[in-house]
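Dig into these lines:

——
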Amino acid sequence: MNTKPKYLLSISLLLLATQFIYSQSKNLPEIKVSKNQHYFVTEDEKPFFWLGDTGWLTFGKLDRAGVDKYFKDRKEKGFNVVQVMVLHNINAVNVYGKAALINEDVSKPFITAGNNFKNPQEYDYWDHVDYTLEVARKNGIYLAMVPVWGTNVSKGNKVSKEQATEYAKFLADRYKNKSNVIWLNGGDTHGNEFMDIWNAIGSTLKTNNPNQLVTFHPFGRTDSSENYHNASWLDFNMFQSGHRRYDQDSVKTNFKEDNYKFALRDFELKPTKPTLDGEPSYEAIPHGLHDTLQPKWTANDVRRYGYWSVFSGAAGYTYGHNAVMQMFRKGDKPAYGNKELWTSALNSPGAKQMVFIKKLMLEFPFLEGIPDETLIANQGSRYDYLAATRGKNYALIYTYNGRKIEVNMGKIEGEKVQVIWYNPRNGQKKKIGIVDNNGTKEFQPLGIKEDGNDWVLILKSGK
């Protein structure tokens, strides 16, 4: 008479084991640093080109239907990373009215029992984060999560080192089995301020979950490498090239719009670590951010930042749009002059064009690529700059404005090279012919010389 309960118990245990194995097998591959330390690969050593989007306010402003729509769209457009704030503010409340913290204390997350995804009114802030992570996973997307946005620390010092450490332990424990989690410590903040807090968060996350990548998202025109390159918890560098024009900078010592300079500098640092532009000028945001009467950055600009940085050694690139980064909805108070709904902005030209840089880089042995300005015989400055990268049998050179490119040949193998023009606006190629791989040769892109008439010159070894 006791066999039936034992039988049912055995079946139940088997089902639980099967569900566990199935859930584990559905995890996304872990992302790690490549063997040469410059790029990212999956756990089976396949190249991983970081193509990110800034969906900063996803957790707070999107309901489940919005989460589903957003990640489905970003998957279709080729994005594989979304950067998001876990806590925008310490009084964070999501779209269902659920507070993230008890008494605005980061060491005390507001957690309720259960996570019934069938009824969003019954689950808490953290359950909604869990739901979002699951939707991202199903769409093959990694979430690069900022634990607490920098202003919560830098303005009023609302987070102590002790609170930050306890909070980081909570995050590390809750998401230890999530292979699609990457951590962005900091959050638009100066790296040389409150370093005890950022080091506490970074080291706690890394010590508890060594297989999850950790970096630091810095203030505009600065780089994580300036303060944390040698930190044991920092796996890769991230710079924020920012939203200002050349003439809007008051600081003479920074790189201004020349985001490729961050990538070139970081590429040479020791110990070697990957780097990327985690926040360039957003599409449809005013030049300089705050004056809404200024011109707005366009798809041309986000392409320029992408190719400039990637051809200069970056392991990927993060795109952003003014409306999407703030998940602007009807009735919201707009920031930075935005008037477009996030659902409409999903289909902005720049968002559609980002996939072409990813496809191009993965067409070649991406992991062997090195930036090489010596390919260029007629280097220019500002918008005339020509970014160049090469591997053993290929070279790629980017012009933002269709200016003539003079190439020092012989930098890749072979007596002959194929010449191809690649259009960053639509991903189309035009074969030019075959030339000798010696001397200096000139190549003239299609169209007239003007900003936004950008082209990639592809040189491939062989006939």
